[in-house]
Design brief:
Elements (H helix, E strand, L loop, with lengths): L1 H12 L2 H40 L13 H26 L17 H41 L1 E13 L2 E11 L6 E3 L2 E7 L7 E7 L2 E2 L3 E11 L3 H13 L2 E14 L6 E12 L8 E7 L9 E9 L3 E5 L2 E2 L10 E7 L2 E8 L2 E3 L2 E11 L1 H8 L4 H4 L1 E8 L3 E2 L2 E2 L1 H7 L4 E6 H5 L8
Parallel strand pairs: 1-12
Antiparallel strand pairs: 1-2, 2-7, 3-6, 3-8, 4-5, 4-8, 8-9, 10-11, 11-17, 12-16, 13-19, 14-15, 14-18, 15-17, 18-21, 19-20
Helix pairs in contact: 2-3, 2-4, 3-4, 5-8
InterPro entries: DUF3712, Tag1
Keywords: Membrane, Transmembrane, Transmembrane helix
Pfam family, one: DUF3712
């Protein structure tokens, strides 16, 4: 009885352990062949890319995508070597020359037929895996890299001109630059970009621009000059009001285009989305009136003249030189505001031929003021202590070529601009005592 037990012990602890290790290797290869394949491919391609880029530069870092036929050939050869290397490694591993893995005694013994089938199937599986990684890189990896490069590009707007305004269109000129890291050589198709006021949730597009074709050079100028249709008047009013009242605001530019990396005939879809924070007009705060003169003998019409210093903190140039505006009737001039002092309307102020450029602007102004109303405001605090009357200006109408420009009117009429004028000094009066 002890002999029979001893024989059973030899059967369990002898040769089957060796066969179990081989079975474990086969199972490991069948299950994780793709992992070893991907690791080896990534290392090989990375090394080749770094070597070629060090010599020539300009690699688009994805398998078989570069700027020269010679480089592409090197990468293709590397892929062939990867396949041969993996097949050889898999064959050696299955024959027992590779690392051994432990096997539990409960596992069934592999048959010779199963082992041969696994060996014969492994080269085909390896080739299919290599092709899968290759096509994944071309159809998924390259588009992802292209999208990431577009996302990383930096858009800077140097200047915007708004000219020749009509009720339903205007001429917009934009001077901008795009900065990239310069490592990708690719062409980007022209596309339609929509502009949104990003500070307002779910705001509709207020303008649509046609962006020209560009490339992925490290520095490039992107200049746009085109007539823009006002497709959504309320959205454009919303933008103009925010631009006039805000110190800064964020504009989102979004569109869809295609990118073609150098060395490939295929184009890939990418999304172009950029956020640009711009300075607003901030109610034109800090406006001053200098060299003011008052005609006390004028009974009607203009009786006030001066020079206004208006600071434009934005990058926008607004050409209103052909615009005429007034409170009730058409006056010769460009922009006219209703003036309020002590909450009373005391007349209109007109700015002729207004061209508002970034920075300091000096423009001539004229006004037809109610002298009695102005003097009444001078007798109230704090004007009676300082001689300075705060005037509140409110745009009431904007007309160009006989047609109202609703989006400019919405901006100028959305809030008061406060301008302090030293009336006592202009009139040569001693500041009266406050009652």
């Amino acid at each position: 009885m002890s002999d029979s037990k001893h024989e059973v012990s030899q059967t369990e602890n002898g040769a089957p352990i060796k066969r179990g290790k081989k079975r474990a290797c086969i199972n490991h290869c069948k299950r994780f062949w793709w992992l070893h394949l991907i690791i080896f491919c990534c290392i090989t391609v990375l090394v080749v890319c770094l070597v070629v880029r060090a010599g020539r530069g300009g690699i688009f870092c994805a398998p078989c995508v570069c700027t020269s036929s010679r480089t592409r050939l090197v990468l293709l050869c590397s892929w062939q070597l990867v396949q041969l290397r993996l097949r050889a490694c898999a064959t050696r591993w299955l024959h027992g020359d590779g690392p051994r893995l432990a096997r539990s005694p409960e596992e069934s013994l592999p048959s010779t037929t199963n082992t041969n089938n696994a060996l014969s199937a492994m080269p085909e599986m390896t080739a299919q895996g290599t092709n899968a990684v290759f096509f994944y890189s071309i159809f998924v990896g390259v588009p992802n890299i292209g999208q990431s490069k577009v996302n990383a590009a930096k858009l800077e707007i140097q200047g915007v001109n708004v000219l020749d305004s009509t009720p339903d269109q205007y001429l917009m000129q934009i001077n901008s630059t795009i900065e990239t890291d310069g490592t990708v050589h690719a062409d980007i198709d022209p596309f339609e970009g929509k502009m949104y006021l990003d500070d307002v949730k779910d705001a509709p597009a207020f303008a649509t621009l046609q962006f020209p074709p560009t490339n992925a050079d490290k520095h490039q100028n992107v200049n746009i000059s085109q007539t823009v249709k006002v497709d959504d008047l309320e959205a454009f009013k919303q933008f103009n009001i925010a631009f006039f009242k805000s110190q800064n605001l964020t504009v989102r530019i979004a569109g869809k285009t295609k990118i073609q990396p150098a060395g490939l005939n295929r184009k890939y879809d990418v999304d172009f989305t950029k956020y640009q924070t711009i300075n607003g007009l901030n109610l034109l705060q800090g406006t001053k009136v200098k060299d003011a003169k008052v005609n006390l003998t004028a009974l009607t019409g203009e009786n006030f003249k001066g020079v206004a210093e208006i600071t434009n903190p934005s990058h926008f140039t607004l050409d209103l030189r052909r615009v005429m505006a007034s409170r009730l009737t058409m006056h010769q001039g460009n922009v006219t505001f209703a003036n309020f002092a002590a909450d009373q309307n005391v007349g209109n102020l007109t700015i002729n031929n207004l061209l508002l450029v970034p920075g300091l602007n000096r423009v001539n102004i004229t006004a037809a003021l109610n002298q009695t109303g102005v003097l009444s405001a001078l007798n109230l605090k704090p004007a009676c202590e300082t001689g300075v009357v705060p005037f509140k200006l409110l745009g009431v109408d904007v007309v160009n070529h006989g047609k109202q420009i609703p989006y400019f009117l919405a901006a100028l009429g959305s809030a008061n601009q406060t301008v302090d004028i030293n009336i006592a000094e202009i009139l040569g009066l001693t500041v009266p005592a406050c009652h």
